[in-house]
Amino acid sequence: MGTLLPALIPALLLVMPICAATCGLQADQATPQPTDAAGFARRAAASAARHDFEHAVADLTRACELAPHQADYFYERAMAYWGNQQPDLAMADLDHALTLEPRALPALVARADLHLRHDELAAAIADLDAADHAAPRQADVRLHLADQYLFAGQLPAAVSQATLWIDTHPREDAQMPRARNLRCYARALSGKQLDEALADCNTALRLEPDMAAFFDSRGLVYLRRRDYDRAIADYDRAIDLHSKDPWSWYGRGVARLRKGLRADGQADISTATALQPRIAEEAAKRGIGP
């Protein structure tokens, strides 16, 4: 089945080349003192690239003071606060950035991430829907939106976002296997369009044949189709490749129990529960169980 926790990361990392790092100079020696908001923002970006979020926040605070109507600076400071492990301050800046510019796509995506981290699903979904309307059809961010919708339990929306990304990107795109697997997994979780889900998983595995998550997703498709032998075979492979994923153990346990292999099935369920104590409860919400 794969983890239900996508990689929820800030929508934009402030990374810029830093001469100070390569020339052996201190940042304050290499960079003249800024005189305007843009200059402070540039220096903040250099600090953020070094993970020096404290100084990035200080410079972005000055940029916000000098240009209080510039939404980008509040968004960038939010990312610096986030990097500095200050999510409440990050949320406040994202709120303000979106007050200034309600359709700012990076801020909508980042705020949705923060809402998801705090289990604020309704607020997250509202931001995701706004981001969906703001994003160009072919935008790369659609794959991240698919992850977010999946985490929020919005499976049709996850499928829709993944489809938009797949339909606007070439087959050889490096992210195509992940996109195909994501769409396969969302469909498998919903228990719908299982033929299409199987085709997606097969494509993902042809493109990257040794990915545990892809075997795990296809195992769920087979489990939904009640093809327990194939489900067990895929979960076997997923566990061989990544033995710490509780969902692969749980899926194989369910398939074994449904085949009447009680001892083996219960052993797998026990292993899954040891790795993730509430897995049976989470699986039951999705109609997955013995």
Can you offer a commentary on this structure?
The chain has 290 residues and is mainly alpha-helical. It has a domain of 101 residues: Serine Threonine Protein Phosphatase 5, Tetratricopeptide repeat, CATH 1.25.40.10. Helices cover 70% and strands 0% of the residues. It has 17 helices and no strands. Helix 7 packs antiparallel against helix 8 and helix 8 packs antiparallel against helix 9. The two termini are 15 Å apart. The N terminus is likely disordered.
Question: Span from first to last CA?
Answer: 15 Å
Beta-strand share of residues: under 5%
CATH level 3 topology of the domain at 1-101: Serine Threonine Protein Phosphatase 5, Tetratricopeptide repeat
The CATH class assignment of the domain at 1-101 is Mainly Alpha
Helical amount among residues, as a percent range? over 70%
Q: Can you write the helix and strand succession as a string?
A: HHHHHHHHHHHHHHHHH
Rg over C-alpha atoms, rounded to the nearest angstrom: 22 Å
Summing up helix and strand content along with how strands pair, one would put the structural category as mainly alpha
Poorly predicted residue ranges? 3-29
Average pLDDT: 90
> How can the largest sheet be summarized?
none
How many strands in all?
Answer: 0
SSE layout:
Blueprint lengths: L18 H5 L3 H4 L6 H13 L3 H14 L4 H13 L3 H14 L4 H13 L3 H14 L6 H11 L3 H13 L8 H15 L3 H14 L4 H13 L3 H14 L4 H13 L3 H14 L3 H7 L5
Q: What is the structure about, briefly put?
A:
The chain is mainly alpha-helical and 290 residues long.
Descriptors:
single chain, 290 residues, mainly alpha, Serine Threonine Protein Phosphatase 5, Tetratricopeptide repeat
